[in-house]
Write a structure and sequence with these properties.
The structure is a homodimer. In chain A, about 60% of the residues lie in helices and about 10% in strands. By secondary structure, the first copy, chain A, is mostly helical. Chain A has a single domain (about 15-140), classed as Orthogonal Bundle (Arc Repressor Mutant, subunit A). In chain A, helix 3 (about 35-45) crosses helix 6. The longest helix of chain A is centred in the last third of the chain and has 19 residues, at about 105-125. The termini of chain A are far apart. The mean pLDDT of chain A is about 90. Chains A and B meet through helix 2, helix 3, helix 6 and helix 7 of A and helix 1, helix 2, helix 3, helix 6 and helix 7 of B. Chain B binds a DNA duplex through helix 4 and helix 5.
DNA sequence: CAGGATCCCGCTAGATACTG
DNA sequence: CAGTATCTAGCGGGATCCTG
C-alpha cells in the first residue's frame, strides 16, 4: 500500500474507461493486447530471454525468435503495435535495408504485465495439465 | 532485484517450458489465457469492481457483468477455465437450478496478472488513442 | 436458470508468389 | 532484408431455437 506510485493512483482515479462495458474503447484495446503474438513480441523486445533488458531487434531477429510466426502475422502485429504507440519502427537505408523495432515508453509500461502472463503460463503449465487430465477423466 | 520472491525464482529456475517455441505446451496455454473473455471473467470473479475480493458469481450474474458476451462464448470460456483448473463450477439443485463459479487457487494466482492487463488498457487508453491519431495523420 | 445443439457468416491466419 | 499482395480454407463467434 505504500508502494502505490503516482502513476497508479492516476490510473485508479480516472474511471472514465471500463472494459466490462462492451462499448468502451478500452474493451477493444484489451482485445488487442490480449493476443499471443503481441505478448511474445513485447517480451522479445523487453529482452525477457536475455538479461531482461529492453533492446531493439530487427525484423528477421524477431521472426527467428517467435517460433511458428508467419510473416503476415508478424508484420501485422508490429504495425498495430506501432500504430498504438507501443513500439517504434526505425529504418536504416543500408543495402539491403535494415529495420529495427524497439519499445516506446508506453510499450515499456506494458512490459511487466505481458511478461507476467508469459511467465505464468510457463510456470503453471504442469498444474493446468494436471487439472485437465483430472477433468477429462471425470467425464469418461 | 532485491524484490524477487521465492515463487519468482522457482519460476525462473524451471525453464522446461518456453512460450517462444511453437511446439511448447505453454504456447497454447498463453494463447488461451490471452483472451478478452478469459480476462474479463477472471476479473469479475476476482471482484475487481467490488472491493477487489474474490467472490463466487452465478452464470447470469457473469452474463450481466460482461457486456456484449454471448451465451456461447461465456459457456465456452467457463468450460475451458474449469477444465484448466482455474475456476470451480458448483451446481445447487434448487428449482430452477443454480450454478455458481469461483476462482480456484490456480485462478487466484492469475488474478493479479489479468487485472493488470485490464487496468493497463483502461489507464492508457488515452495514450493509445493519441498515438493512433498521430500515426494515421502521418499517412494522410 | 443455465445451458445444449445448430446453422451460418465473416474475418483471420496460413500458404504462396512477388518486390524495392 | 523486409516486407506487400492475393487467395483460400477454416473456424471463431453470433444468432436462434430448444431443454432438464
Amino acid at each position: 500500500m505504500a508502494t502505490t506510485t503516482a502513476a497508479q493512483q492516476r490510473q485508479t482515479a480516472k474511471a472514465e474507461y471500463d472494459a466490462f462495458l462492451a462499448a468502451c474503447p478500452s474493451r477493444q484495446l484489451l482485445d488487442r493486447v490480449s493476443d499471443k503474438w503481441v505478448t511474445l513480441v513485447l517480451c522479445a523486445l523487453a529482452g525477457d530471454d536475455d538479461g531482461h533488458e529492453p533492446r531493439s531487434l530487427r525484423y528477421s531477429e524477431l521472426a527467428r525468435r517467435l517460433g511458428g510466426v508467419s510473416q503476415k502475422m508478424l508484420t501485422q502485429t508490429l504495425r498495430s503495435l506501432e500504430r498504438d504507440g507501443l513500439v517504434t519502427r526505425t529504418v536504416v537505408a543500408t543495402v539491403p535495408v535494415t529495420v529495427s523495432y524497439a519499445l516506446t515508453d508506453l510499450g515499456v509500461s506494458l512490459r511487466l504485465v505481458v511478461r507476467s502472463l508469459k511467465v505464468w503460463a510457463e510456470a503453471h503449465m504442469d498444474d493446468v495439465l494436471a487439472g485437465r487430465s483430472t477433468y477429462d477423466a471425470r467425464l469418461a
